[in-house]
Design a protein that fits this description.
The protein is mainly alpha-helical. The protein has one domain. 43% of the residues lie in helices and 10% in strands. The strands form 3 sheets. A two-stranded antiparallel sheet has the order 1-2. A two-stranded antiparallel sheet has the order 3-6. Strands 4-5 form a two-stranded antiparallel ribbon.
Length: 242
């Protein structure tokens, strides 16, 4: 996984580090990647955000809980993809596919895709999951993983064209969508209800989370008691209540 850059003249395209402003860190080697697999990349991205949370760069309003929600992703990342090479095949993912990235003419023919600055390569399940412009946003933010009629229809169209593999990517796409949604600086740490609803949706996508937030949080603090970054956030809170 990485972003596409042009080098030399005439232009030659190569995959290099991920050109994403939220994961670029001065003094840390610049762009992260490129990575041999989507699993390797997603783990590296989450770990980068965990360091930022621990340092107070992001999620400062609710640092411990924001850290826990990100740390959870490390445990479920392997459930998204097998950690293996992509056999030199990759797909492109638009960073913000909410609809206004599609350029059409007066006849509504698609003539171009705009705003590719942060585009990166992606695994097949992620690249062919439904674009966010099709999501039922109210239900999605409320924690539901139910697909909208447009998403179901997209899956049906793929199936009608003999591409059950792509149809499955749409129907099973919530895992990848939830994993990458509300990450890093996009985490709604200051909006408690939205934060909890989105995390509930993430857990539900991986068939986890029946015990509720409070119980899960208590168990997570015990489970990750040896996580030094987490303990660096927990200790100051404990002193406040002494």
């Amino acid at each position: 996984m990485g972003s596409i850059f042009t080098v030399r003249r005439p232009a030659e395209f190569v995959v290099q580090g991920i050109a994403q402003h939220a994961t670029y860190r001065m003094g840390a080697g610049g762009l992260p990647g490129p990575f041999a697999s989507s699993l390797e990349a997603s783990v590296a991205i989450v770990k980068s955000y965990l360091s930022m949370i621990a340092n107070g760069e992001i999620g400062a309003d609710n640092a411990v809980d924001t850290y826990l929600a990100h740390r959870f992703r490390l445990d479920v990342a392997s459930g998204l993809w097998a950690d293996g090479p992509s056999e030199n095949r990759f797909f492109l993912k638009h960073p913000d596919d909410k609809g206004d990235h599609i350029l059409v003419n007066e006849s509504y023919d698609i003539v171009g895709i705009i705003d590719w600055e942060w585009t990166r390569t992606a695994s097949k399940p992620e690249a062919f999951s439904s674009p966010c412009m099709m999501w039922p946003l109210g239900k999605f933010y409320g924690g539901s993983n139910e697909l909208a009629p447009d998403e179901v229809r997209l899956a049906e169209i793929f199936g009608e064209r003999g591409r059950k593999d792509l149809s499955d990517c749409v129907m099973q796409g919530r895992k990848a969508q939830r994993f990458f949604f509300a990450l890093g600086p996009e985490s709604p740490s200051s909006d408690r209800k939205t934060f909890l609803d989105l995390f509930m949706g993430l857990q539900s996508a991986f068939n986890l989370g029946d015990e509720g937030w409070d119980k899960w949080r208590d168990e997570a603090l015990v489970r990750w008691k040896d996580d030094e970054l987490l303990q660096g956030l927990v200790r100051p809170q404990e002193r406040e209540y002494v």
